[in-house]
């Protein structure tokens, strides 16, 4: 509780929002909004036609930014390639006999290299002898959850670059992020709120975010001892409310529902009923008294129908899925980079908090990635939270009940 008393997130948060918005090329958006963009990008078409010494890319994706790799963004969708003798559409062909072709498809989508097909032969063939060993490395690192595989993806891209270069062609792809008002977005900043207790602090926080045109994801517990169903409904009906995700407690609630999947489904359905709209995102509550993460959790998330999970602090720069029995999981893992609970509760908390976040933002920007910042509403004003009689009553009741249940 000492951390809550000393924390002063509000002023430090406003300072970082000012700095991030001033950069001009950082998209400040909720996780759900970003994931909808990511899926549209993955499912978009990319057509590259070569004729008369020119490469012309086109896509079904609105706000797509075309990049001539590496780092040349096209102001006009045309690239000179006078030395090529190739003409027609450029299709990368994934060998249909490739064992981990689903993983290769996932990686190509991640990289915005969407002009691919699956067949036994083709002009630009990606076969086992060229990419098989690299895919094995990526798969092994994904299973270890946290191991970076950027060098392996770079090696796969180099295979493609070399194949295209043999015919005098460049690598053209769709950039990771959209082009907004003619600005190429270089990174994403996406705040996440773990609403364990102080749901009443959210109005002031969202007012600040609206000032800087920021949307965020508010993770709400479905069955919470610190706020009621009516409180959640009031939140969802507020005009300032942004995306609502589930702050899951599947391990704890599995005691009530039988297993983690049943608990995940019950929590998701209950929250959706309260707010009147789908819940696609989840992060697991650390728990006042128990952990809510087990070996069965990821399966429970997938079976319950979640799109993305921001629980684990993975080291990947973009949304990532894992390969299971030859298929990609339906749930994307979206890494978090830092949280306010990682800053020591000292008198210099606000300054340290600001400096740490901006340091992390710089690193994410260098990698053109997505920064999910974990915030706790109670840190934005513990006294204002306690000064509401209802909040004070609930927190006293919670600790009294657990004190009575604790063994002597």
N-to-C span: 22 Å
| Number of structural units classed as domains | 2
| Biggest sheet layout | 9 strands, parallel
Mean pLDDT, to the nearest integer, reads 91
Just give the CATH class of the largest domain.
Alpha Beta
User: How many individual β-strands?
Assistant: 23
Give the CATH architecture of the largest domain. Answer: Alpha-Beta Barrel
Rg to the nearest angstrom? 24 Å
The CATH superfamily of the largest domain bears the name Glycoside hydrolase/deacetylase
User: What is the approximate shape?
Assistant: globular
- What proportion strand? 15-25%
Q: What is the number of helical segments per DSSP (H or I, 4+ residues)?
A: 14
Helicity range: 40-55%
Helix-and-strand structural type: alpha/beta
**Unreliably modeled segments:** none
- CATH level 3 topology of the largest domain: TIM Barrel
Oligomer: single chain
Summarize this structure briefly.
This protein has 408 residues and is of the alpha/beta class. It has 14 helices and 23 strands.
Task: List the SSEs and their pairings.
Elements: H1 2-6, H2 9-23, E1 26-28, H3 31-42, E2 46-51, E3 54-59, E4 66-68, E5 72-73, E6 79-80, E7 88-89, E8 92-95, H4 101-110, E9 116-119, E10 124-126, H5 128-143, H6 150-165, E11 172-174, E12 179-180, E13 183-184, E14 187-195, H7 202-211, E15 217-220, H8 229-237, E16 243-248, H9 250-257, H10 260-275, E17 281-284, H11 297-304, E18 308-309, E19 323-324, E20 327-328, E21 332-333, E22 338-339, H12 349-366, E23 370-375, H13 382-386, H14 389-405
Parallel strand pairs: 1-14, 8-9, 8-10, 14-15, 14-23, 15-16, 16-17, 17-18, 18-21, 22-23
Antiparallel strand pairs: 2-3, 2-7, 3-6, 4-5, 4-11, 12-13, 19-20
Helix pairs in contact: 2-12, 5-6, 9-10, 10-11
